[in-house]
Specification:
Layout (H helix, E strand, L loop, with lengths): L4 H14 L1 H9 L4 H10 L1 H25 L5 H22 L12 H22 L11 H12 L4 H33 L4 E6 L4 H12 L5 E3 L7 H11 L6 E5 L7 H9 L3 E4 L7 H4 L2 H8 L1 H5 L5 E5 L4 H8 L3 E6 L7 E9 L2 E8 L2 E7 L4 H16 L4 H10 L8 E4 L5 E5 L5 H12 L5 E5 L9 H12 L5 E5 L4 H10 L7 E4 L2 H11 L5 E5 L9
Parallel strand pairs: 1-3, 1-4, 2-3, 4-5, 5-6, 6-7, 11-15, 12-13, 12-15, 13-14
Antiparallel strand pairs: 7-8, 8-9, 10-11
């Protein structure tokens, strides 16, 4: 009897179940192969462990079968198949991310991936090993090569996942293009709809929600939810959530590669473009800051001749891009001599911020629950867009007062009689970190920072984490650094800033950090959670 197709299917299904964490990585990297392989390199042990364990299970199962009975029948194959599938399930469960921030989701795309992988890997294994007769012994070189291939097959699981993704890509491209064009058709048919695109290295999500709240004072507005900022994510929102009553559509546009914003604009065709910031983000994929700048400016390039652009004045790259723009443009910030919309008389407290919203010939007192200068700048940017869309200063001020803290973005969480938590976990840039540290200084001592530092900065990662540590040194009393390798640069920066060595605590995980907090925190303390790592980063 040749190697049973039943056993081959069992090996493949067991491997796919065992490789759940690898497929999760593929999903987290938006099915991009460069990101997937970078993640495998960062998590090498975790990447090879499922396949290794499946190889061990396959060898053990085969040896046990031979020892029990020299005559192999379909019953043996059936038992081995059940063991391999059950074992694969348990391995997948044991090696998957237990507390993932973005959980593995069995989306239609993932279901199609599993179907393609099952067919392709079964065919590969059947073609190589289908002629082997274990009961007859390994008489030929081809038999020996075939059985060796069967044994090492599970160990190649990371490559099989990539191959399956590659072969599924044409199917996904065709399906996504159909959905994409349907969303385009829906937007084109809505001549009454104001379409707004938002991009930037940071601040996109905050600006999106702030703008949506303010514009609701005049317009029924649809804002893409959460961090939906990819073509397929925005396509889904358009097809499922856009209603006839909506008058404004605000799309967040994320980018990790050159051309990503251009593709988003091909979908949305924005008539208003908002640039929140430009800086060294995702340098592991962009490689250079110049490529980041050109990609973000794709939004402004895509605006029609009569389109309107809005820039946040950072005194640096955004200002330079504003100056080079020929289309109708507005800039906002804290420079009354330069900006079209600005703030004066700013005061900060643990309860929020107050300021005067100013533009030529007009001044309006405003109050917000949001913390920090960066949020004031975000509000000003959104106010400038609202003015451009015909809202009055009074409507804008009402909208500003209604803005609620955005989850994980300088979100203040008070615990009565206990510590206060400032959750800035979604921040991952040095400018935002500096702002968070300034906010923390408004709070009374004792102040504690919990952080793993910053990632996805390519060759600049060590340098920028050292700068991050220096910036942290004068704002807190204790620093809890998550990750022994990454914390080296932060510790160096803290010491350079005069921070006491015995107040630096290095832990291996967020769970360890939480346990340490329970030991050292007292009522009235303030804890800043600054940055968090993506699920595909471990040490």
């Amino acid at each position: 009897m040749n190697l049973s197709i039943l056993l081959i299917i069992g090996i493949v299904i067991g491997c796919l179940l065992a490789g759940k964490c690898l497929i999760h990585y593929f999903q987290l990297e938006s099915y991009q192969f460069p990101g997937y392989f970078r993640t495998l390199r960062r998590n090498l042990l975790k990447a090879v462990l499922p396949g290794f364990l499946m190889t061990v299970l396959l060898i053990a199962t085969s040896l046990l079968t031979v020892l029990i009975s020299p005559r192999i029948t379909w019953i043996h194959y059936a038992v081995d198949t059940i063991v391999l599938i059950a074992g694969g399930f348990l391995i997948g469960k044991a090696t998957s991310e237990k507390n993932a921030k973005k959980a593995f989701v069995l989306t239609p795309r993932i279901k199609r991936f599993y179907a393609v992988a099952l067919i392709v890997l079964t065919l590969i294994l059947a073609l190589v090993s289908g002629g082997i007769d274990p009961a007859g012994g390994l008489k030929t070189t081809e038999d020996r090569i075939g059985i060796a291939f069967v044994i090492i097959f599970p160990a190649l699981l990371p490559l099989w996942i990539a191959l399956s993704g590659l072969l599924a890509w044409p199917i996904e491209k065709g399906i996504s293009e159909l959905y994409f064009r349907d969303a385009q058709r829906i937007l084109i048919s809505r001549k009454d709809l104001i379409r707004i695109g938002i991009t930037g290295s940071w601040g996109k999500t905050s600006v999106k929600f702030i703008l949506g709240t303010i514009l609701e004072e005049k317009y029924h507005t649809l804002v893409t939810p959460a961090s939906f900022n990819t073509p397929m994510g925005v396509t889904k929102v358009i097809r499922s959530k856009l209603e006839p009553g909506h008058r404004v559509f605000v799309a967040e546009m994320g980018a990790r590669h050159m051309g990503d914003i251009k593709e988003m604009c091909r979908l949305v065709h924005p008539e208003i473009g908002i640039l929140t910031s430009v800086g060294p983000q995702h340098l592991d994929t962009f490689k250079t800051l110049d490529r980041v700048i050109r990609t973000k400016y794709e939004l402004i390039d895509a605006l029609p001749a009569d389109g309107r652009s809005f820039f946040a004045d950072d005194g640096d790259i955004c200002r330079k891009l504003y100056e080079k723009t020929k289309k109708e443009k507005t800039i906002s910030g804290l420079d009354p001599a330069y900006d079209d919309v600005w703030a004066e008389n700013i005061t900060y407290s643990p309860e929020g911020s107050e300021f005067d919203l100013c533009r030529k010939g007009e001044r309006t007192p405003c109050r917000s629950q949001l913390l920090g200068e960066l949020n004031i700048r975000n509000i000003l940017l959104c106010a400038s867009v609202a003015f451009g869309l015909g809202l009055t200063a009074e409507q804008i001020a009402r909208g500003i007062e209604k803005i609620r803290p955005i989850e994980h973005r300088l979100q203040l969480i008070r615990n009565p009689g206990g510590m206060s938590v400032i959750d800035d976990a979604f921040n991952s840039n040095i400018r935002g970190a500096r702002q968070a540290f300034q906010v923390l200084k408004v709070f009374p001592e004792k102040r504690i920072v919990v952080t793993p530092g910053m990632v996805e900065l390519g060759e600049k990662e060590y340098e920028m984490n050292r700068e991050f540590g220096e910036a942290m040194a004068d704002c807190c009393d204790r620093a809890i650094l998550v990750g022994k390798k990454r914390s080296q640069a932060i510790s160096e920066g803290l010491r350079a800033g005069g921070f006491a060595e015995n107040n630096i605590h290095v832990v291996s995980s967020l769970d360890e950090a939480t346990a340490l907090l329970r030991q050292i925190v007292t009522p009235g303390d303030t804890v800043l959670f600054e940055n968090d790592l993506p699920d595909n980063y471990t040490e």
